[in-house]
């Protein structure tokens, strides 16, 4: 039998695990990235703007909002605060990944730097076979997702309004992915309290505060209720919440 | 805005985003024991976060106007049904997305 180089099977195994899990993200990011690039293009920015933004910011909703920030008067403090609030949900991802990203050395810096909704979802929910290197898997998922987004945004920025979308509704791929991950967890978890709180409180806040302002109150409500329920939740579920 | 000003603005946007991503890891470094409360949150938050993300994706859906959220509702039901039936993640996602695209392009125009 041919002997594999030491890194060969490790990389191959990790890639074999990572690639299929990022396919929904590939579809969603290429499409949304293109939409974003086109939006930048028709707003009068050269293609390297969306390319640069997608590399250094890599946060979809922030990049869309950035277009109006860049078109308005120079207001650095306002830009800082708007983006801080918009991206506050990243705090939850970080807290959830503290353990999983532990002990991964320098990789960890990039994993945190590029931790989007979708990358978080894939990495947080992946159950990996023994022969897959966890750190390498996380890294590959993160790099692949980042590449998909940059490719989409750059293509959109170059092609601009030449792109005509007969692909209406394709962005639903992200919703479908979140629904599947939510469902998978639901079927496995012993207690549905946290899942129901996340769903219910966010919905109530959306109805009360409207689509532009609901995220921070929803996060506050989730945090508060989980804090108040700490004892019963820890007692009921033991370690496997 | 001049090019310099827009580059500064991009830098600030990137900085604010990076801050939100690094803050938990800076506050609770791996070398030190993480407080029990934060470890508890790390365990229970993901379930709530995925619930939050599902709603977040649907934030611009209006029940009272347009197609009344029907295409979204039907497509999500299709995702759930497909997934309970076959348990094939990619199939559920692709099936639901195709279902949604057909609905918004041909049924609820």
How is this structure best summarized?
The complex is a heterodimer of chains A (241) and B (109). With 241 residues, chain A is mostly helical.
What's the rounded overall pLDDT mean of chain B? 92
**Main sheet of chain B, how many strands, which sense, barrel?**
none
Find the structural class of chain B using helix and strand composition.
mainly alpha
Count of helical segments of chain B? Answer: 4
Radius of gyration of chain B: 21 Å
Q: What's the pLDDT, averaged over the residues of chain A?
A: 89
Fraction of residues of chain B in helices? over 70%
Oligomer: heterodimer
The H-and-E topology of chain B, N to C, reads as HHHH
Terminal-residue CA separation of chain B = 39 Å
- Straight-line N-to-C gap of chain A: 45 Å
Number of helices of chain A: 12
What form of chain A results from the Cα inertia axes? globular
Describe the structure.
The complex is a heterodimer of chains A (241) and B (109). Chain A is mostly helical and 241 residues long. Chain A folds into 2 domains: 8-172, no CATH class; 189-241, no CATH class. Chain A has 12 helices and no strands. Chain A has helices spanning 8-42, 48-56, 60-71, 76-86, 90-97, 107-113, 117-125, 134-159, 172-188, 193-209, 215-228, 230-237. In chain A, α1 (8-42) packs parallel to α8 (134-159), α1 (8-42) crosses α9 and α2 (48-56) packs antiparallel against α8 (134-159). The model of chain A has no long low-confidence stretch (mean pLDDT 89). Chain B is mainly α and 109 residues long. Chain B has 2 domains: 1-57, no CATH class; 61-109, no CATH class. In chain B, 76% of the residues lie in helices and 0% in strands. At the A-B interface, α1, α2, α3, α4 and α5 of A face α1, α2, α3 and α4 of B.
Question: What tags apply to this protein structure?
Answer:
heterodimer, A: mainly alpha, 2 domains, B: 109 residues, mainly alpha
């Amino acid at each position: 039998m041919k002997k594999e180089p030491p890194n060969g099977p490790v990389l191959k195994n990790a890639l074999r695990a990572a690639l299929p899990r990022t396919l929904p993200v590939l579809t969603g990011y290429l499409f949304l990235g293109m939409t974003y690039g086109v939006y930048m293009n028709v707003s009068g920015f050269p293609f390297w703007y969306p390319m640069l933004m997608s590399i250094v910011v890599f946060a979809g909703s922030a990049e869309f909002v950035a277009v109006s920030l860049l078109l308005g008067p120079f207001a650095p403090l306002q830009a800082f605060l708007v983006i801080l609030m918009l991206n506050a949900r990243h705090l939850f991802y970080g807290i959830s990944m503290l353990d999983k990203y532990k002990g991964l050395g320098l990789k960890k810096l990039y994993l945190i730097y590029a931790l989007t909704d979708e990358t978080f979802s894939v990495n947080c929910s992946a159950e990996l076979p023994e022969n897959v290197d966890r750190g390498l898997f996380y890294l590959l998922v993160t790099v692949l997702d980042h590449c998909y987004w940059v490719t989409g945004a750059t293509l959109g920025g170059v092609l601009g309004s030449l792109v005509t979308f007969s692909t209406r509704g394709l962005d639903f791929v992200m919703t479908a992915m979140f629904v599947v991950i939510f469902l998978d967890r639901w079927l496995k978890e012993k207690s549905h309290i946290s899942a129901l709180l996340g769903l219910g409180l966010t919905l109530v806040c959306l109805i009360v505060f409207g689509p532009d302002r609901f995220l921070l109150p929803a996060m506050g409500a989730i945090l508060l209720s989980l804090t108040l329920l700490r004892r019963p939740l820890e007692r009921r579920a033991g370690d496997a919440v | 805005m001049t090019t310099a000003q827009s580059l500064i603005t991009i830098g600030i946007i990137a900085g604010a985003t990076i801050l939100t991503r690094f803050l938990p890891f800076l506050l609770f470094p791996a070398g030190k024991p993480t407080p029990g409360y934060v470890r508890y949150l790390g365990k229970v938050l993901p379930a709530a976060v995925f619930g939050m993300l599902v709603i977040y994706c649907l934030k611009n859906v209006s029940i009272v106007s347009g197609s009344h959220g029907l295409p979204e509702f039907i497509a999500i039901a299709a995702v759930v049904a497909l997934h309970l039936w076959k348990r094939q993640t990619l199939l559920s996602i692709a099936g639901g997305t195709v279902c949604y695209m057909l609905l918004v392009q041909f049924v609820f125009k």
